[in-house]
Amino acid sequence: KPMRLRLHVIAALLVLCCTLALPCAADVLKITIDGPIHPIADEYIARAIMAAERRHSEALLIELRTPGGLLDSTREIVEKILASRVPVIVYVAPSGARAASAGFFILESADVAAMAPGTNTGASHPVSIAGGKMDDVMKTKIENDTAAFLRSYVSKRGRNVQLAETAVVKSSSWTDQEALSQQLIDIVSPNEQDL
Fold first, then answer.
1. Euclidean distance between CA atoms 9 and 31, whole angstroms
2. What angle do CA 86, 117, 98 make, to 5 degrees?
């Protein structure tokens, strides 16, 4: 009997150890950016990255829908995403949403770039805030600088650098399926749970 009891105890301990070793649900911190990209959006993302790092989250999920915004704020956000110790997932959602202009830069900077069906991205040609026409030299300088900025990290993410650059120089845009098939994003997912 004592031998049998020991075997039961050992079996119970093995079951307990195996149960404890099963992976837990992923700890993913989620934020939503719904609107223009500006210094407040930059600050919000910075705080989210810091919180995800403090919590030792497995990832930060940024649900994104934006018509675009300020280039300086976009650069700041991209720098923070690239430097993040926690993987950053950018998800353009829900269906009908867009990540235009500045949103395309942010989407491309993500460790995982995702879009919901029926979304679009691109059209990242720089424009003047004042709405006036830029002189040709300044226009060319800003286009070239912005395109180089995009190329500098799109290649690191293993995405289609030449095609991504056309968002800046030609204002190209893509649907979710076009972006996926042309290697601008990693996944199309119908909802956050599926993603």
1. 46
2. 70
> Two tokens at 68?
């675009």
Q: Alpha helices, DSSP H only, in 37-188? A: 39-55, 71-83, 102-109, 136-154, 161-169, 176-181
Rounded to the nearest angstrom, the gap between the alpha carbon of residue 150 and the centroid of all alpha carbons in its chain is 14
pTM for the model stands at 0.85
CA distance linking residue 120 with residue 100, whole number of Å: 7
The arrangement of strands across the sheet holding 88-92 comes to 28-34, 59-65, 88-92, 112-115, 187-188
Cis check for the bond before 2: say yes or no (omega within 30 of 0): no
Question: What is the tens place of the pLDDT at every residue in 81-137?
Answer: 999 999 999 999 999 999 999 999 999 999 999 999 999 999 998 886 666 677 888
Q: CA gyration radius for the chain?
A: 22
- Amino acid identity at 151: R
